[in-house]
Structures are given as C-alpha cells and as structure tokens.
Amino acid sequence: MSVRTMNRRAVLLAGGASLLLAGCTSTSAPARVALAAAPETPKSPDSVPPHVQAMYAAVMDEPYPIRASRMHLVPERFWRQEVTDPTGEKPGSVVVDTTDRFLYHVRDDGTAMRYGVGIGAAGFEWSGRAHIAYKREWPTWTPPSDMIARHPELERYRHGMEPGPDNPMGPRALYIHQGNVDTLYRIHGNPDETTIGKAVSSGCVRLLPQDVIHLHANVVSGSPLLVV
C-alpha cells in the first residue's frame, strides 16, 4: 500500500467509522475460509535465514513455554522487519493494514516495525480509529455471548478461560477501546503459523507469539490505533 493510499483511507475513516462489536475466536472454533491466498512460502525449514530463526526461537523464560515458530510456513513478507514508515501516522501509533495483512508500529525516526498478521474473516471485518487502552501478559479469554451462541461448545468458558498454552489469546493481548467503550476487539498472539496473512478470526488481529511479545514490550498503553 502506498503512503498516499493509506493516508486517504485514514482521512475517510477519521470521519466517524466505528468498530463492530464482536470478539476473538477460539482456535477450537471452525476455521473460516481465507479471503486471499497467501503467497508462496519457503519449501523447508532450512530455507529460513538464521537471524529469522533466532527472532522466532522458542521462549523458555515465560510462565508457559512457547515453542519456536515454524517460519517456513509463513510467507517471507510477513516476517517481522523494520521498514520505512508508509502510514503518515504520528510516532507511537499502531496501524493495521487489513488489505496487505500488516501491522505497523510507527517510530519517531521515520521507520516502523512491521509484523504479519491474521485478521477477521468475512462478516467480522472492522476498521476505524481507536486506541490501545491497556495491555495484558498471559490474559484470560472470555468469549462474548454472541460467539457462544454460534459455538455452544464454548459455554464452559462463559466466565473466562484461564491463561495458558491452550488459551486462544496467547501470551500477550492489547485491548482496543473507542473512547471509554471496550470494542471487544484485541490484538493478541496465536501459534498457528498458517493463519498469518489470512482472514480467519472473529475480528481480532493475530500475531505470532514472538511478535506479539515484541509488540507488547514496545507499545505504550493509550497509543492511537488505526485500522484501514
């Protein structure tokens, strides 16, 4: 996406686009068809450069161990990297490009950290301006009532699913509010490499566990968020 295109979208969204209320889906919920096919991926684990393997290595100093991400399953353009900022947003902003499936964290030197993401499936897309109200490490996940109605097997989690390796929120979550209203959308971790670059969730933005830990460590609560 060009800077001009992204800025034009930002102007349109600033006019009052609102977020649709929904919630993050469980990995146990039926998978949805991706809206776009992912680019061709590397053929084998050996094709992943050592520095990328190091970025996505196993994390053992957390309350729950995190396995190494299998980056040969993730298209190269979705690997975490520093890029020239294409967004035009102020430093500290988080920008989600739902077309190209990137999340940008804008820096104050004209660059941005870019992450590959999975986004909401058809019927669960959302866009607009909001902010990161707060952050959590190893969050509890509580499916909203409308999700439980669609997936009755989630009833046992109506009052929350404890943190852990099976929790669909992963090791970190950033909570998205508009004003004082919780949108019920989150930016969170997910270990399924095949969801990166695809539209598969119930609206939330998914990053690989190592990426969401990195993002969580660098984003400040209260930071502005733009989804285009």
Q: How many distinct helices?
A: 4
Taking strands numbered 1, 2, ... along the chain, how are they ordered across the largest sheet?
1-4-3-2-11-6-7-8-10
- pLDDT averaged residue by residue: 85
Q: Tell me what the CATH architecture is.
A: Beta Barrel
What is the element string, with H for helices and E for strands?
HHEEEEEEHEEEEHE
InterPro entries: LD-transpeptidase, LD_TPept_cat_dom, TAT_signal, Transpep_catalytic_dom
Domain L,D-TPase catalytic: 92-228
Active site: 188, 204
Protein name: L,D-transpeptidase
Descriptive report:
The structure is a single chain. The protein is of the alpha/beta class and 228 residues long. It has one domain (3-15, 23-227): L,D-transpeptidase catalytic domain-like (Beta Barrel). 15% of the residues lie in helices and 25% in strands. The protein is built from 4 helices and 11 strands. It has helices at 3-14, 50-55, 145-150, 209-218, and strands spanning 81-84, 94-97, 102-106, 111-116, 119-120, 128-137, 172-178, 181-189, 199-201, 205-207, 224-227. The strands form 2 sheets. Strands 1-4-3-2-11-6-7-8-10 form a 9-stranded mixed β-sheet. Strands 5-9 form a two-stranded parallel ribbon. A hairpin with a 2-residue loop joins β7 (172-178) and β8 (181-189). The longest helix is centred in the first third of the chain and has 12 residues, at 3-14. The chain is globular and about 45 Å long. The model is unreliable at 7-22 and 26-38 (pLDDT under 50). One of its GO terms (molecular function) is acyltransferase activity. The active site is at 188 (proton donor/acceptor), 204 (nucleophile). Keywords: Acyltransferase, Cell shape, Cell wall biogenesis/degradation, Glycosyltransferase, Hydrolase, Peptidoglycan synthesis, Signal, Transferase. It is an enzyme of class 2 (transferase). Its EC number is 2.3.2.-.
